[in-house]
Write a structure and sequence with these properties.
- The chain is an alpha+beta fold.
- Helix content is 49%, strand content 21%.
- The protein has a six-stranded mixed beta sheet with strand order 7-3-2-8-1-9. Strands 4-6-5 form a three-stranded mixed beta sheet.
- A hairpin with a 2-residue loop joins strand 2 and strand 3.
- The model has no long low-confidence stretch (mean pLDDT 85).
């Protein structure tokens, strides 16, 4: 019974955290945690890139719109073209190849029937498709890159700096993002910061949801429940205790035997609970195993301590005369 109580309580908390993490990850993948600084051509690319190395910042990089690309195969179509700094590759999930070429969103490459390694003739010469990246323009994010040529360039200044912050940070990093404005840039009146995906909301408060999740209180309650279950189990053995006392055992003997039995039981329960919980954490929350598993092991230890105290509490407070009376009434 104690094993079931402990395992169920912890599994509920694991599932709760897994759900919160899933929503937060969906928010992050939708670009909900990305903020965009727009300053004409006034972004210091070096300063923008360095933001990604600061504590709390996930990644950062610059973007500059270039002249549209015209392909020989489609002379009437001008394709938007953006140059990125290396840090933006982390934001977009692009595997950068160290040679000249361009990148396309997966959907656009499929629409044009292009694969990695294909070459295309453009108004600026022949160029190779070096790779593709996922970019869903239907989820509310800034759609400009969904139909554009992307390449990486060495730039001193750019028009935009993108920065991914921790989920739930909102606009709290905007002042930090503004430090990427070049010293000789336009006035602050021309500086704008906005969300990359203003439509992304679900999962934005992941940290608050984690802190306020109701399931964490079950980890506290399980200690009390384990003590009550163990105490009830001892209470049901009153006749057995009375019989042993009548047969010559002392009250101290009963306490020691009960304690020894409780320790053996909780040891088995603790091992089984630890195995199940460790398996569940590694399965559902592999990235947080090092943080969560010690906390859950602490909960298991406290629950087992509660069970031991609950097991010996009834017999410790029963008087010998009361046990004798109990034995005589039932004999």
């Amino acid at each position: 019974m104690i094993l079931v109580v402990v395992v169920v309580a912890i599994l509920l908390d694991i599932l709760s955290i897994a759900l919160i993490s899933s929503k937060a990850e969906a928010f992050r993948e939708a670009g909900g945690a990305v903020r965009i600084l727009v300053v004409g051509d006034g972004v210091d690319v070096g300063a923008c890139e360095r933001l990604g190395a600061l504590d709390g910042v996930v990644a950062s990089g610059a973007l500059q719109e270039q002249s549209p690309v015209v392909m020989d195969a489609m002379p009437g179509l001008e394709v938007p073209h953006y140059a990125l700094s290396p840090g933006t590759a982390d934001l977009l999930g692009i595997d950068v190849v160290d040679r000249p070429g361009f990148y396309l969103p997966v959907s656009l490459a499929a629409q044009w029937g292009m694969r990695t390694g294909d070459k295309v003739d453009t108004d600026s010469g022949r160029s190779e498709l070096l790779g593709t990246f996922e970019f869903d323009e239907t989820d509310g994010r800034d759609p400009r890159l969904a139909n554009a040529f992307i390449d990486f360039a060495v730039m001193r200044t750019a028009s935009e700096c993108w920065m991914e912050t921790p989920v739930g940070a909102g606009s709290s990093y905007d002042d930090l993002l503004r430090t990427a404005v070049a010293a000789d840039a336009v006035t602050t009146a021309d500086v704008h910061v906005s969300a990359f995906n203003p439509a992304a909301h679900v999962g934005a408060d992941g940290y608050r949801e984690f802190q306020e999740r109701p399931s964490k209180y079950a980890l506290i309650a399980v200690v009390v429940v384990a003590a009550i279950v163990a105490a009830a189990a001892t209470a049901r053995r009153r006749l057995e205790m009375s019989s042993n006392l009548h047969a010559g055992a002392t009250h101290v003997d009963l306490v020691i035997v009960t304690l020894f039995e409780a320790l053996i039981t909780v040891l088995v329960v603790a091992v089984a609970a630890t195995a199940v919980v460790a398996w569940a954490v590694r399965l559902l929350l592999p990235a947080a195993t090092d943080q969560l598993l010690p906390a859950y092991l602490c909960s298991i230890v406290l629950a087992m301590l509660g069970a031991v105290l609950g097991a010996i509490a009834p017999i410790a407070f029963w008087s010998e005369s009361r046990l004798f009376r109990s034995f005589k009434r039932r004999s």
